[in-house]
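Marked as duplicate of an earlier ticket. Keeping the data here for the record.
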Amino acid sequence: MKYAALAVVMLSACALADVDPDAAEEQESGATQYVNILDFAKTDQGAWYDLVRAVNAQVAAEDSAHTPLTLFCSVTSKRGDIKDCAWTFASSQAVVDGATAAIAVDAPTFQCHIAPKTTAPRLIALLQGSANALHEPLPGTTSLADALPDCFAHPIGGSALPAVAAGTYVEASAYYTTTTNQQKWSDAKTALVAGFDRVCGDTFCSGDFTDLQSLTFACAITKSTGNVKSCAWTFGGSWTLVAKTGGLALTSQSFTCPVAMHGTIAQLITTLTATGTEDAIRRPLPGTTATAYDALLGCLP
């Protein structure tokens, strides 16, 4: 019986080898190795990045509260069978204490796992060919979108925002009451974020946290004068390692950086939205020679 059982095992292995040598090798005890989907030889990296940008844009259109960071999968090195996928997110809210002008920030991150029963090339082809990739049912599991609600119910880090009373100071978004001025403040923040996005690849995003994203830029404003008391810029980022067992070892984190200036919110808006070749992040802030870029040095990883 012992020899018969051994013969069956050998015949099974040979049959697998005839069909797919990689499958036989990966089914041998201890032979399976896992890699990042981007390191799998048959992954079209350009297609993967295009796919991630597409589903990130879908999330942004449907959910303004959560900012996508990175979508990664671990796959077997020979066949590209998916072991695990993880999508990281960050979120941020800020409030200003009306009495002290202190800015409190709640900035949790989220690590959402999903494990489609397919290969890397087939997953990419399926989602690329879908008219609604975010909600496309995936083999052996649910859609990307359906995996998110439970994940968002389990934030990592962050802190409860304090109850704040009305007083001398307000957050910049509440300072202006007209649509025109509210749009000016929005344009200023957009210019600042665009400047960060342009410099990040060669600076802050060149280390472990390659996916750093701006979350909120909040300022405490004196209601009577429009003077900027303090500002804080919050970011989220993550990085991923593939464990020997195929799981994804994730690190996700948020960073809140104080940004100092001396002047009014109107002066800040003028500085950040002025025409010129220098990005808003590189322009000296009102009342100082320092820039918003300078404020991030030593704060972001």
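See parent ticket for discussion. Strands lie at 34-36, 67-76, 82-90, 93-96, 103-106, 109-114, 169-171, 213-222, 228-242, 248-259.
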